[in-house]
Every structure is written in structure tokens, then in C-alpha cells.
Amino acid sequence: MLKLKLKWILFLRFNLIHMLIVALMLSSCGMNKDISIVEDNKAGDSNPVVGLINQASLCEKSGNYDEALKYYNQAIAINPKNALAYIDRGNARSKLGDNEGAIKYYNQAIAINPKSAWAYIYRGLARSELGDNEGAIKDFNQAIAINPKNAIAYDSRGLARKEIGDKAGAASDYSKYLELLK
Predict the structure, then answer these.
(1) Element at 59 (helix H, strand E)
(2) Three-state secondary-structure class, residue 142
(3) What pLDDT, on a 0 to 100 scale, did the predictor assign at position 47?
């Protein structure tokens, strides 16, 4: 019963973190160099890709992750260098309970854009869900190295550190998380 409650809490936390990340991404209005759509705009081919990603997001909001995956697949077919499409496809796989599959897509996003803090954060969250907290911490460390002002990376690393018994490290990360939220 306790294990089930912990899984439920982690599931809710993951979804809350995902909503915060999406809100932060949207609030940047394309100014976030972490999102490969910025590079796509230079090529002039982002309109259909952005439209497909937006359609997929609408499907995800209604809980239709399989349909969302179809739109992400189309976006990737048009522009296989769009890291955001791979990140979002990974997120949809994760929401379907396939964290191993999600990690493969996050790996592809990282191969395309190794400076994507979000790809590392999401991969870290998926690894944490699979019980690989050491691997998750490495991903959160990389995300922090890329963007030391990313509060979510500190919060997520704090949770992973807590899971492995590093209470001092977790407390430090939670303090930094709260500091960045101010």
C-alpha cells in the first residue's frame, strides 16, 4: 500500500513538473535557445512542424497520447532535427507508462541538441521513475550545468538525492529550488 501511494505521489509530481516546464517554455515565447524551434525558424520550415506539435499538445491535454504520438511522428518526418518533437514524443511515451521508450526519444533530442536542459530533465525524471536515481542525478547535474537557474532541475535532483539517502544534498537542492522561485 505504501509503495502504491509513493508511486501515485511520484506520478502526480511528474505531471506537476511537466506542467511547470510547459508553462515556462510557453512563457519564453520562442526566446528560449533551449528549444530547437528557434533554429527551425531560421530554416523557414517550422510552421507545419509547430502546427503538428501544437495539435499533439492538444491531444495530450485531452489524454489521447496515442493520437499525440502520431502528430509528433509527422512533425519528426518533416523535420528530423527538431529536438522539441523528440522531447514531447518522449513525454507522451512516459505518460503511457513507457519510460524506457521515453528515454530513447530523450536520447535522440540530446543527440540533436546537447544543450537542451529540458531533455536532460525529462530523461532524469524517466530514469527516476525506473528506479535509476543515480542516472537521474547525472541528468539533473547536466541540466544544471547547462542552465544553473532552472529551479525544476534542482527540485528533481533533490527528490532523486532523497531517494538514495543523500538528505544533505536533497536539502541543499530544495533550498536552491526555493531561492530560484523568488
Answers:
(1) helix 46-61
(2) helix
(3) 72
Q: How far is CA 36 from CA 9, 62, 66, 86, 137, in A?
A: 31, 25, 23, 10, 24
Q: What is the mean pLDDT of each run of 10 residues along the chain (182 residues)?
A: 51 56 42 35 59 93 94 95 96 96 98 97 98 98 97 97 97 96 90
Residue 27 confidence (pLDDT): 38
Displacement of CA 66 from its chain's centroid (Å): 18
Q: Which amino acid is at 82?
A: N
Q: What are the Cα distances from residue 33, in Å, to 23, 29, 90, 111? A: 16, 11, 20, 16
Separation CA 150–CA 169 (nearest Å): 17
CB 72 within 8 A of CB 64: no
